[in-house]
Amino acid sequence: MRDAALPQNHGAWLVLAGGLLLGGLAGGSFSLPLFVLTLASLAGFVAVERALAGNGPRARRSACTAAAVAVFAGIWLLQHEQGRRLIYLAPLAVGFSLAAVRLAHRHARGDRRRFELVCMCALALALPSASLVAGCPVGWPLAALSLAYLIHVAHAVLRTHAHLDPMLRGRAQHAGLFGAGLVVALAISGGLPVILAFAVLIGLLEPWLPRWQRMPAKRIGRRETLLLAALPLAWLAL
Fold it and tell me: Concatenated DSSP letters for 42-57?
């Protein structure tokens, strides 16, 4: 499926959709700029992922088309009053794209893993961005929620690779403890509701389960889908 028109990474789709959903809910209103931001984010993700998928003609056409949509949607967004508040995304998008092009020409397994980690963190930027476009002022609670979400999705990559290669379990455990400390601190400071902090902690502490073991890829995907969906579901429960 490397030459498919759309990405097959269901976990990344969930992360991107979750960030846009949470950002829109935090802002409190749906608008044309929010729709355009959603379109630009989706198209940008498709363009980068399909560029890394291979040299098949279908993947190349998909990458070029999606890149054009992302560029035009981004230009329109930056011309809008609310969109101008997202100008900080422009240099980030350029740097991320250059990094993607460089990694696309390097086939080392480690480079692919590093790209996946960077990609998941970049998708988490959709949360504060969507909130800004939806009219939510930037404040400490939103920044805390964004940081917790970034920790949540970055650690998901470590968990996935650790289940495929048990030698990496130690990294996932220690990174999870560090992230858990940050999340607890955010909750104590009042910047993060307890139910949201608990939803993130479930995933961060998952590698410490006593019966933790190697898993087949499909089972990992199902588990990660549930763990990553915990934060949007907890938000809706507030």
Answer: HHHHHHHHHHHH-S-H
Q: Is the pTM of this model over 0.85?
A: no
Place of tokens 């030698």: 167
Question: What string of H, E and C letters represents the secondary structure of 119-164?
Answer: HHHHHCCHHHHHHHHCCCCCCHHHHHHHHHHHHHHHHHHHHHHHHH
pLDDT at 126: 67
Q: What's the helix, strand, coil split of the chain in %, to 5?
A: 80, 0, 20
Angle between helices 140-164 and 194-204 (to 10 degrees): 20
- C-alpha closest to that of 45 among 103, 150, 116, 111: 116
Q: Residue 84 class from Cβ within 10 Å (0-12 exposed, 13-18 middle, 19+ buried)?
A: exposed
CB neighbour list of residue 44: distance below 8 Å, 6 or more residues apart = 66, 67, 70, 74, 93
pLDDT of residue 235: 79
DSSP string, 13-40: HHHHHHHHHHHHHHHT---HHHHHHHHH
Mean pLDDT, consecutive 10-residue stretches, the chain (238 aa), reads 62 70 70 82 79 73 87 85 71 70 58 60 67 68 77 86 87 91 85 88 91 83 85 80
The 8-class DSSP code of residue 205 comes to: T
Q: Do 34 and 135 form a contact (C-beta atoms < 8 A)?
A: no
Q: What is the C-alpha separation between 149 and 163, in angstroms, rounded? A: 21
Specify whether the CB–CB gap between 123 and 42 falls below 8 A: no
